[in-house]
Amino acid sequence: MADPNFDxxxxxxxxxxxxxxxxxxxxxxxxxxKTGSQLMxxxxxxxxxxxxxxxxxMSGVGxxxxxxxxxxxxxxxxxxxxxxxxxxxAVIIPTTKENLKYSVTxxxxxxxxxxxxxxxxxxxxxxxxxxxxxxxxxxxxxxxxLTKQTLTETDNKYDDVxxxxxxxEAQDLDANGIAxxxxxxxxxxxxxxxxxQPIFNDAHSNTVADVLGLPIAWAAKGSWDKTAASEILxxxxxxYYGILSGIEYEILTEATLTxxxxxxxxxxxxxxxxxxxxxxxxxxxxxxxxDEAVAAITPATTxxxxxxxxxxxxxxxxxxxxxxxxxxxxxxxxAPDSSSAPAK
Length: 344
Hints:
Phage_capsid-like_C; Phage capsid family protein; 19 strands; 26% strand; phage-related protein like fold; globular; six-stranded mixed sheet; Phage_capsid
């Protein structure tokens, strides 16, 4: 239980080496994660009250014309269900021991940008593209590949986007946004009509704000897998995310950071270097509820992998069947250790 007398403004981080990041700063970090994450800007937020949340969908319900006294037909609905599961993500960021003399509030105000960036980059990598260390059972690109709603990128961006939109329209769905890396911007800018005029540039800003009416969420540096996809289009209301709880932290002073190398090319030993590190964790969730709501434009040879199972499964018996177990991926996912960032 939290100490009611704990004052983060007057207690040094050295004296409070474990706990939850104060709510005000934790909320700021989570807001920065939501702003920085490409998927969170596009997808639909869902409240999380427990580690696994179940969503039930019903289809096959219809209305019928009837005459007076005529028996009304009864629909035979089909029930489908899907599960969204939260997983713990961790980031370790080295810092100097001198910074441990700051108050808890001042310390996290100094570190919050690096924490948020590490979180949203790792979340986007896993949710959009999967990967060997992802804890999620799905990826967004995996849904497009599972439904075979992909096309190979050409030199004609207008046709590429139009044809990708057509995949969704064939399912009576509408794309409402595009996810893409910034390296695609030059291709949009250089797309011209028969008169040599730019097709996509905004008339006022001379930049590309949307394509065929679809807003673009540009990926943060290092979060997009260009070998898997050039663009992902979706009805993003069919992609959910959630955050289970606040952000917890632990200050490390004796650990060896095996994934952060020093100038000698060896893992950093905090004690030997008289350094410290902060380990921060938070618990996001993600799911695609409708595979056919996703389409992708890919390189000629894509490294993306189709999801192993459909987003939803049919409920075949009464009762509350157990939630499907996650794949063999680890239960927590470590975000990049911000090794490229200088120690604070």
